[in-house]
Design a protein that fits this description.
The complex is a heterodimer. By secondary structure, chain A is mainly beta. Chain A has strands at residues 4-5, 11-14, 19-25, 33-38, 45-50, 54-58, 61-66, 71-76, 85-92, 100-102, 106-111. The chains are: A mainly beta, B mainly beta. Chains A and B meet through β5 and β9 of A and β5, β9 and β10 of B.
Chain lengths: 112, 112
């Protein structure tokens, strides 16, 4: 059973701090990695994609990938109350079916 | 740009009644289409995916079925709903297998 593991949280950070969200995956052949943000009652929204080892930055968001350790992370700098949401990590299934395997999500709370 | 629609937005149905949820994508051709269910406080469960008209792959044996009568239309159906079918149903599309998936606004189904 291919799995994606995330700490469910909640992760609580003060406004302006760096939030660090982590994800591990079991499928060593996964090639694509994604972070989605889901506000309560809404559908998931893609915020970051990463395909190669290292860091990828987009505004206040940085995704980090380490395929050897099967580890993906998302850093949110200068956290804002509007960042309070559940963050879902997803990785591609190496069986070439096109499926993504989602983690259960980490709930982030940014306190003013 | 691409847009994905789902309807209805909310639905309350009695146990044993039929179900039909519709998803339509605009602005792209031959998308890969997916149906997910998210139970309250739970992760995303992939139900069906389709790589082309008439091509449906089922992930979880259950009383649901899916059809793709047109290139950009994906329908989720049931002949008789169970209480356990309650949840948030999400349709998603992608251009390439194993890459970014984009979600529709979802249908919240309550089976009473």
């Amino acid at each position: 059973q291919k799995e994606v593991e995330q700490n469910s949280g909640p992760l609580s950070v003060p406004e302006g701090a760096i939030a660090s969200l982590n994800c591990t995956y079991s499928d060593r052949g996964s090639q694509s990695f994604f972070w989605y943000r889901q506000y309560s009652g809404k559908s998931p929204e893609l915020i970051m994609s990463i395909y190669s080892n290292g860091d990828k930055e987009d505004g206040r968001f940085t995704a980090q990938l380490n395929k050897a350790s099967q580890y993906v992370s998302l850093l949110i700098r200068d956290s804002q109350p509007s960042d309070s949401a559940t963050y879902l990590c997803a990785v591609s299934d190496s069986s070439n079916t096109g499926k993504l395997i989602f983690g259960q999500g980490t709930t982030l709370q940014v306190k003013p | 740009s691409q847009t994905i629609h789902q309807w209805p937005a909310t639905l309350v149905q009695p146990v044993g009644s039929p179900l039909s949820l519709e998803c339509t994508v605009e602005g792209t051709s031959n998308p890969n289409l997916y149906w997910y269910r998210q139970a309250a406080g739970r992760g995303l469960q992939l139900l069906f995916y389709s790589v082309g008209i008439g091509q449906i792959s089922s992930e979880v044996p259950q009383n649901l079925s899916a059809s793709r009568p047109q290139d950009r239309q994906f329908i989720l159906s049931s002949k008789k709903l169970l209480l356990s079918d309650s949840g948030f149903y999400l349709c998603a599309w992608s251009l390439n297998l194993g890459y970014e998936q984009y979600f529709g606004p979802g249908t919240r189904l309550t089976v009473t």
